[in-house]
Structure formats: C-alpha cells, structure tokens
Design goal:
Helix content: 40-55%
CATH superfamily of the largest domain: P-loop containing nucleotide triphosphate hydrolases
Structural class: alpha/beta
CATH topology of the largest domain: Rossmann fold
Largest sheet: 6 strands, mixed
Shape: globular
Number of strands: 21
Number of domains: 3
CATH architecture of the largest domain: 3-Layer(aba) Sandwich
Length: 602
C-alpha cells in the first residue's frame, strides 16, 4: 500500500525582488523522513522551510499537506507577544493532561517555564519555542537551527528525543555531529535548485564535491564547443551564409546557455594575520576565583597559556565559561588570585552577543566607523591587515554584495551577521584570538574554512563552543567547567575529554548517545597515546610532506635555469624565497611527524 506523503511542493517559484530564490521546485516529504536541509548562508534554506510551514506564500505552485497531517515549525526568532511566561507560550494548544510534556521538555532543554517573557533572553525564547514543538509532537517537525543556544547536554537530550521519535523531521543545523547522528536523507539548496539524496549528512560533502566536479567538466566541454563553433563562424560563414544560418543560431544558443549558467558562490576570502609574535607565555592565571552572591562560578583555578595553544572551554549554559574567558583576557577581575598577561599581545574578540556590530547601522558604517579600521581622509576605505582597501571590495570577500553594503545589519541572517563580525576581527593583525560561540549560524563551508585558518594561525586561540565536531577539529586542550565552581583541564578536544572523564553524568549522557548510534570512538585510538586532534594530524602529515616535496622539486627545476636571474630577476627572487619557505615547512613537518609517530608508538 502506497504511503500518503506528509507534504508535497509542486512547481514552487518564489522571487524577492531580484533573482528567483526557487523556480519550478517540486519535492515530497514522506512519513518517517529524517532529512538534513543544507546549503550556503543566504541560499534560501530558512525561506524554503517557511514555505513548507505555510508562513511564506510562493509566487506560484502548491504546498499540500497530507490529509490530517500536522506540520510544526520552530522559528529562529519566535513571537511570544500575548504570553506572560515561557511555559504559557510552550503549552499553547495543549490539553491540561499534556502539561507534563512541557515540563519534561523544559527540563531537557534547560529553560524555566515560570520565566516572564519580558525578562527572557533570546536563547531562552528559542528553547521555549523548541519545547513547544517537541511537546506538540506534530507529524512533520521543521527545525531551523535547533541547537543554537543549547549546551552539549541539552543537545544530547534533543538528539536522543529525535532519534526515538517516529515523526518525520527536517533539520537545518551547522552542527555536523548532530546532523550525522540523525539524518537519513539530504536536501541541498544550491543556486535556486534543490537536490535530494537518499543518504544522510555523513555522505553530503562527498556528494557535493562529485556534483561540482561534474559541473566543471560539463562547463569545460561547453566552453570548448563554443570556441570551435566561433572559429568556424569567423573562418567559413561568408562562403556558406545561406546554408548555415542554423549553425549560427546554434552558436548563439550555446553562448546563451553558458551565460545562463549560475556559477557557484565562492567561499569567503577569510584570512588571519598573526602579526608580531607575542611573548612565549601568553596568560598566567594563579588561584583565581569568582562568585556572584551565593553562586560560586570558579573555585581556585590556575592555568598557564603558552603561545600557539588551542584551548577550548566547555560546560553547561550558565556555568561561567564566558566569565572565565573574560578573566583570562583581563576584561573581568577575579575575586581573588592573579592574572598576568604576556607581552606584546594583540587580542581579537569574537563575542557571542555580536556586540561589536550595531544592528541599526549599515554594514558600510559598521566597518568605516570603527576607529581601528578607519583610513584618515578616505570615507570609502578601511585598513585591512595594514593596507587600505575599498569597503565594498572587502565586504565582497566575505560574500556580501554591493546592495547589502548600505543595508542595516538587522536585515542580515544570523550567519551573515557572524560573517560580518569575522570581517571586523580579521581586518587587523592579532596574536590572541578569543572566540565565544563562533559557530552559531555559520554554514558548513565557512566552518571548514575557519577550521583551516585556525590550524595554520601562528597565534593563540581561546574558544568557547558547544559544537562537538568543531571542538575536536580545533582544540588541543579542553577546560571542562562542571558546575559548583569546578574547572578541570584535559588534553585534547571534546572526544578526548569524554574518554578521560567517562564517568561524569554530563559526559556520560553524550557517550550513551554515541554508543546508541554505533559511533563511539574506537578504544584503539585512545590507547595510541595520541589525542583526537593529534591522530588526525598524523594521518594528514604524509600528504602534506608529499605536497611540499613536489613543490620544492618544481622550484628547484625552475631555479636550475642559468638565464633566469639575468632575464627575470623578480621571478628568480620570488622562486628563491618560496624555496626557502617550503624547505623550512618541510623540515618542521618532518619533525612533527617523527614526534607524533614516537608518541603513537609509546
């Protein structure tokens, strides 16, 4: 017997004043579907979800829910007007006998149902909206960034609830671990088209790269065909004018086809300049403490941060991670103990509240109005890592178009606001990068680029995040804040912390979640003596060594030309500098490989 679809979109088209967001889009959501909805920031993921929820009316086409099917949508910015408390909002539409569902969700998601709406933070409002959706248990759940503002413990609770639910759901999330654990199909929004693959997010990147490779091949073939036809047109059209007008029209059609191709949006041209090196000892905290009224945030805690360290702070919301971070960088004073900052520090801060950007100002004014970026006498230029650059040109490097430059920041999506803040902090050199919840709202490609930049950043990184995958890829040391003022330092990232602290209730809830899906890290990796980050680095080094050796060989061949210096001294100097640089990198990489191999063997 054929299943009745939960939802159908038939030939949907939607335009917001410019290029179409979607055109002739059709898709079907079946009962039990567990779908990742992915795409670049600004590609239309949230818009598509709102079309599914009936909140945005398409220009043409039909949105059809199955008979008796209920569709629930979790908004990023829920409207709580008309409700006195978060619990009242979350319980709206439920019977009195179902109130326990709100209390249960409130406990798992960590929000207080009695909290008055007017005093609730944005994160508390989002958790109340998520609790309302989970308690209502519609046949199809549409979840737009549900893990934002959740700590790792609450994410584990939500992951477990969705895994055991029989309802269908579609997820938008930047959290790779969350998507890998829960999804069995993927919808990919890309340049106005939506593709579907019957595999979960774990297979998305390989699929995406294959599609892009095929596109590049087809574009190359089309370009060659156009060149051949254009050559024929120039050389032979005059002799065969009457007989070959059809071929001329075919050439025009080929050119129109190429012009109509929508090229992929590039990745943001992010770059980090570590500037002058800091002293070897960056931060020395000795027996620092902190309390607010009767709430102990931190019992005596000591830490030494060396240049080049990658340190992550993890723990439940409200435990004091940001407070500790601010004490370590001198923005907040401890109740007792001392914090000494090293010499020659240039600190760049990415704050989770995005307080460094004014929502009522335009993107242009947010950059040109910053005294650290302003160029004297140039209203349209800013200083970017020591050199003047046109403000629009710099914004384009972070994937903003010229029209957005004069628009207010409040019109941006969450991911676009994060990119704008990254543009501000990356414009000037720094040697201590402080990232407080940087991953919220960023797309997969931007996260990939940020991880790559942090891997090669010649400075120190302090990080607060609830993104387990990001923590594993970036952190070499983890400070776990476990409540009641306790803070413990562990080697490695999130997975290493879990392995070392397996009996802790907070960690154990996530361990059980991973065991349920067969994803628990093999014990052999833990026994190797390497952290999660070091293990991946050891696996990547052979390819890096091979690449450096190949580049050195090419440069040596180039420099072996006896006439190069006299004929092109600039090229000779650049090649010489490049050779010295790559030889130094090869030596460092070989030394790193030997050390990691010895550690793994031990």
């Amino acid at each position: 017997m054929a299943r009745v679809p939960l939802l159908q979109l038939n030939e949907i088209s939607l335009t917001f004043g410019g290029d179409p967001v979607f055109e002739d889009l059709s898709l079907v959501v079946q009962p039990g579907d567990r779908v990742a909805l992915v795409g670049r920031n600004g590609s239309g993921k949230s818009t598509l979800m709102k079309v599914m929820a009936g909140l945005v009316e398409p220009d043409k086409g039909d949105v059809i829910a199955g008979p008796g099917i209920s569709v629930g949508y979790m908004e990023q910015d829920p409207d709580l007007s008309g409700f006195a408390t978060l619990g009242e909002f979350a319980a709206h539409g439920l019977e009195a006998s179902e109130m326990y569902l709100v209390e249960r969700a409130g406990e798992g998601l960590k929000f207080d149902p009695a909290r008055p709406v007017e005093t609730a933070s944005g994160g508390e409002r989002r958790r109340a909206a998520l609790a309302r959706l989970m308690a209502g248990s519609p046949d199809l759940m549409l979840l737009d960034e549900p893990t934002n503002h959740l700590d790792i413990e609450a994410i584990a609770w939500l992951e477990n609830e969705l895994r055991h639910s029989r309802k269908g759901y579609i997820l938008i999330s930047h959290d790779r671990a969350f998507l890998r654990a829960l999804t069995r199909a993927t919808l990919w929004v890309d340049r106005g088209a939506v593709r579907r693959q019957e595999k979960g997010f774990a297979d998305f990147e390989a699929w995406r790269d294959q599609v892009w490779e095929e596109e590049d091949t087809q574009r190359h073939k089309l370009n060659r065909k156009i060149k051949a036809e254009a050559r024929w047109a120039v050389e032979g059209i005059s002799a065969r004018r009457k007989r070959n007008q059809g071929r001329v029209r075919a050439l025009q059609d080929l050119r129109a086809e190429r012009a109509a191709q929508i090229r992929r949006q590039g990745t943001a041209a992010m770059a980090l300049d570590a500037g002058p090196k800091s002293g070897r000892k960056v931060i020395e905290a000795t027996a620092i403490t902190k309390a607010f009224a009767q709430n102990t945030i931190l019992k005596p805690f000591s830490l030494t941060v060396q240049r080049g360290d990658r340190i992550a702070l993890v723990g439940p919301n409200g435990v004091g991670k940001t407070t500790l971070l601010n004490m370590l960088i001198g923005r907040e004073t401890p109740d007792s103990g001392t914090v000494k900052l090293g010499t020659n520090l240039d600190i760049a801060l990415f704050d989770q509240a995005r307080a460094q950007i004014d929502p009522d100002m335009s993107l242009w004014d947010n950059l040109t109005g910053d005294p650290d970026m302003r160029v004297s006498g140039k209203a349209d230029q800013i200083m970017v890592r020591g050199a003047p650059k046109h403000v629009v040109g710099y914004l384009k490097e972070f994937l903003f178009d010229e029209a957005q430059a004069r628009a207010p920041v409040r019109a941006l999506s969450g991911g676009e606001k994060a990119r704008l803040l990254l543009a501000k902090i990356m414009a000037r050199p720094s040697n201590l990068l402080v990232l407080d919840e940087p991953t919220n709202d960023l797309d997969v490609e931007t996260l990939d680029l940020m991880q790559e930049l942090l891997g090669t950043y010649d400075g120190t990184v302090l990080l607060v995040s609830h993104d387990r995958d990001f923590l594993d890829r970036v952190a070499a040391t983890t400070i776990a804040m476990e409540g009641d003022g306790k803070a413990t330092v562990y080697a490695g990232g999130w997975s290493d912390y879990i392995d070392q602290r397996g009996q802790d209730d907070f960690a154990q809830s996530v361990v059980k979640s991973r065991q349920a899906q067969g994803q628990e890290k093999p014990k052999a990796a833990a026994k190797s003596g390497l952290s999660f980050t070091e293990k991946h680095r050891l696996e990547a080094l052979p390819a890096e060594l091979e690449r450096l050796e190949a580049e050195i060989a090419k440069l040596e061949v180039l420099l072996s030309d006896p006439n190069l210096f006299s004929e092109n001294p600039v090229k000779f100097q650049k090649a010489t500098d490049a050779l010295v640089e790559r030889q130094a990198k090869l030596s460092a990489a070989e030394e790193e490989w030997l050390l990691l191999e010895e550690k793994a063997s031990a």
